[in-house]
Amino acid sequence: MLPLGAAAPRRPLLAIALTGLATAAPASAVDTTLYAGSSVTASDRYWSPAFYVDVAGDRRQTGRFTWRPVASLGWVGARDERPQLDRDVVVAAAGVSLVDWWKRAFFSFQFGYANRTTEALSSHGQFISSLGWQGDRFALMVRHVSNGNVFGGRNLGETMFMVGVTF
Questions:
Q1: Residue 2 maps to a domain
Q2: C-alpha–C-alpha distance, residues 59 and 68, integer Å
Q3: pLDDT tens digit string along 124-139?
Q4: What's the number of domains the chain is made of?
Q5: What is the pTM of this model?
């Protein structure tokens, strides 16, 4: 047992949280996709591991657009080489994904919250935009997380290149 105020290891807790999100998807959810990849920020060329779980709901039609609600929980690893990027960050987000618009491509936009700030994710409020392709069980995605220069800070952002498996 850790004494009060002691820091618990964060990576095992993140794994438990991601697994919980993936297994506790609401009954109306159609897809859960686990993504893994690398992230880079504009301030350097040091790559960092990144993981995300996306849970997407049923497809809905609005006019000629098909969209799905989507919720995400992700982790971007620290870069020990840079003091301003030396912390792991967990990002939770919710938004919509436009789907079925061109050969299984998707574009999503979400509003998010980062549990910690770094030089790259310089505020707690974040915008998450993603562009990708979704097959039956396989997905490719480029995701950018940034505060859009709305919430202050340097606004460098994190850009991720990810591969996913859908359940």
A1: no
A2: 5
A3: 999 999 999 999 899 9
A4: 1
A5: 0.81
